[in-house]
Amino acid sequence: MPTIGVSVAIPSPYAELLQAKRASFGDPRAKSIPTHVTLLPPTEIEDSEVPAAVKHLESVAAEGHSFPMVLRGTGTFRPISPVVFVQVSGGLAECEILEKAVRQGPLQRDLDFYYHPHVTVAHHVTDESLERAFTELADFECRFEVTEFHLYEHGDDGVWRAVRSFSLNGG
């Protein structure tokens, strides 16, 4: 049974910069998780459900519109979860709308936490590394246009790979 996810990919050169930073903080998953903003967290589905999921995502994309995204500064989910992230400060509402649309129909599922768009830069690392991530990226800022989102599949080797992109209608 495949494990899938749906995300907005962070474009170059920001993706590589943030992934390198994540690795520098000692995050063991840095090289296996592309830099992204999650729309659907890891979700197991039956092989037979994949076509319906793809059709659903095509519909979501057709009804969506491109939008500007701004990533700025850091935040954390501590003490609830040992995570430091770069904040989505522009495009937040658009991500929330997309996430809600994606998590319907064949991809309907409950979440463990309320949806909060972000870009993880440190997870399951020491407290010192979490503090370093929080401090080193506090002044980080980038802007780009979101014109698509991606369906990812978690490989047997533990690496997440984009298997399909969905262009937003307005993009």
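The record above closes out task 2.4. Task 2.5 opens with a second protein, given below.
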Amino acid sequence: MSEYRTDLAMERTLCPGGMGDGVCVDTQKRGEMEITWVRIDSPEAARRLGKAQGVYWSLTHPRLPALSPEERMTVAKEVGQMLRLLLPPKGDVLVLGLGNRRMTADALGDRVVSGILVTRHLKEGRLRGVCAMAPGVLGVTGVETAELARAMTERLHPAAVVVIDALAAMETSHICTTIQLTDTGISPGSGVGNHRAGITADRLQVPVIAVGVPMVVYASTIVRDALCRILSYENPEESAAAMARELAGNPPEDLVVTPRNIDELVQGIADMLALAVNTALQPECTMEELSYYLH
């Protein structure tokens, strides 16, 4: 599994050995949207897939970056409904936007947090208490994100933590078209091989829901996909993967690719995710009321 570098559980299940005991997958089509549930039930399955035990929910829409305002609202409601199901029904929620705001492809979490309705300081009875922060990255702050998350959780005592981050995908078709939610938390930087301490329920002692969208893909993956289309060997995928490692070397692990219009894509998806999180956390407010509070 190690050479299949991806943060998406649904992609892991498609790799050799991805299915089997301890892994349940269910996929539903809703128009152009595809909803996929992946449940990893055993430690052995978790090791096999390289993903923590838990539930992974993903929504894929091929036109996600270019949806109309009405379609964006439909997707936001779908994501918000799922997020609400994963969260405890009451109590304050801490929203953390991970990533480096100075790198566009890694700025998703920071931009989502800027659109979150923060209410912990208000005394409005029907608004759930929400606080939000973008803690930055270790290379900028000198502090592990997991350390900051734990300190804030111990101080604020939220009922749950929502963590938002950019992900890495294995398939180019999933870049900026897939949203994943999971109750397993997240390891910042794991998608690009920069493993940091995890932000998980075990570490924070509260439920941790991770929300992410793939923004990058490995160059070796792009080469592999291209070679799969032109090679005519008996096992083209295996041959293409080996050739991709050779062609994309020096060093293949460090070379990642993102779309050239990533600025536009990140901002559009961030706005959509902010709306989804706000609707999940403030179910008694209409879309119009949320817009009024934010502006």
